[in-house]
Amino acid sequence: MLLSLAAMGGLAQNPDQMRVWSSDGSSSVYRVDDVDSITFDKGEYAEGVGDWTTPHFIGDTAQLVLTEEERAYVHASNGFAKKCFSKICATPSMGKAGEQNHFFSPLALQMALAMCANGASEGAKEEILSALGFSGEHALENMNLYYNKIYNYLITNKDSVELAFPSALWVREGLPVKKDFVDVATKNYYATIGHLNFSYDSLSLTSLINDWAKEVTQWRVGNLDADIPSDCSLMLNVTDLVSGRWAGAFLASNSIGDFVSQNGESKRITYAKNTACMCRLAKTDRYQVLSYPFVTYDYNGDSFVEIYFSPNVYNDSIQRFSVAFLIPNEGEDLDDVLADVQWESIPFEWKTSVLGIPFFPYISQTYEWRDCLKELGIRKLFEEPFSSVDGVLSSCRQDGRIDIFNTGVNASIVSPQYVHGTGPGWGTGAYVSVLLSRPYVFAVMDNSTGLLLSMGRINGFPK
What's the farthest any 2 CA atoms get from each other in the chain? Predict the structure, then answer.
């Protein structure tokens, strides 16, 4: 006998029998020996909420082919990224006290918001769709398809770069969550939907969330320090994992130079340089950008084989990701330049370049996005209950840390190396020399589309 009831089960007085109560209050008794299994149908609400979700491994190389409509989404995505970046740079209180440098993943934040749109109120969903650049009758479906395509492309292992954008929506324990929302969140966005008892003390909750962050970022993020209110219903955590190897190693040198911070303070530092190699470079009347590549691997079905990067040869098709360093020209304001630059259409050319960089030990940063997102038009997400769970989002938090190594990047939330300025011989000498000496912006980008994955701004040398 196979039973399938919208019910709750329990033992009758006789241990050889079981009584099953239906949702209408009625009950029936069955002989245990006559029952093979019981399925408890929870209707539209999900079971097993709380499993941590991480992206699956894709060994085959995926090519990112975007339609004209999807390329418009890239433009909208970068526009939203610039708005958010402008807000955090202009609002020091959003980040950690005393930290003058900034970094975050706009794509991770967008994916977390897109995931929430599937379970939010109708008004909140419309605000998110509008802010992220999606409109029309099938806007929600198009958004889900677009971000899933982007995510699956990013997690294919072709380069030395490892990318992941895990997020988690924490739900007050006891609040049921609709199954269709959990399915979209976990299968389309690889997000975690988990229950937490917010009545626990803040330290215990922080420890639980840190365990999740360590798991999904390979222990690169796990020092969350938050005051979580006991009356919280929903809380959103966002993180970003980027790891990779530079195409050319940076070796210690005896080059000594001044690093001039945004506040005018000057500090003598030691720079390291890479061996000369081909990089994508752009020079306009307002700014200069150098895009430094990561090592590229090819997957042959069994293992990964490094494609050696010749200093005199370049190939657009095999270099998917790079870190672009944007430096305003003398007399140009960095904020004004950032407001106008279109990252997906920077006029790059290939040039042989040498990079001079200082090694920052690490930067740890945290942002609470609630107020910023409200200013950007996403208000109802924090004011109206979700349609998929009877709760209002209290917090949207993004945490991360960056570590810099001479062979590459090992980071969560962002992955920069730093450059500034050009030496003599732009396009005329044997190579272009680039040296970091004042504030600049870096961005981890997809080379084929110009999509911004992570962004940061260095205003001064870390203490």
Answer: 93
Q: Are residues 397 and 342 in the same domain?
A: no
Residues 160 and 202 in one domain: yes
Please, are residues 155 and 147 in contact by the beta-carbon 8 Å criterion? no
Question: 80 near 215, Cβ under 8 Å?
Answer: no
Residue 60 domain-assigned (yes or no): no
Closest CA to 165 of 360, 450, 453: 453
Range list of H helices, 349-401: 370-375
> Token pair of 347, please?
């006029």
For residue 322, which amino acid is it? S
Residue 226 is part of a domain; what is its CATH number?
3.30.497.10
128, 252: one domain: no
Domain carrying residue 25? 2-40
Task: Give the number of domains in the chain.
Answer: 3
Are residues 226 and 88 part of one domain? yes
**pLDDT per residue as tens digits for the range 236-254:** 888 777 777 777 667 766 5
CA distance 195 to 171: 5
54 domain-assigned: no
β-partners of residue 256 are 270
| 204 and 222 together in one domain | yes
Q: pTM score, two decimals?
A: 0.80
Lowest mean pLDDT among 341-345, 363-367, 416-420: 416-420
Counting Cβ atoms within 10 Å, is residue 149 exposed (0-12), middle (13-18) or buried (19+)?
Answer: middle
Instruction: Quote the tokens at residue 32.
Output: 């245990």
Based on the fold, state whether residues 351 and 369 are members of the same structural domain.
no
Instruction: For residues 171 and 212, state if they share a domain.
Output: yes
Of 367, 336, 355, 353, nearest in space to 97 by CA: 367
Beta-sheet strands, E only, within 90-248: 102-104, 162-164, 167-172, 192-196, 234-238, 241-245
Contact yes or no for 221/239 (Cβ under 8 A): yes
Q: What pLDDT, on the 0 to 100 scale, is given for residue 216?
A: 76
Do 173 and 301 reside in the same domain of the chain? no
pLDDT for the residue numbered 52: 55
| Calpha distance 81→106 (Å, rounded) | 5
The percentage of the chain sitting over the pLDDT mark of 90, rounded to a whole number, equals 23
CA-CA distance, 445 to 451, in Å (whole number)?
6
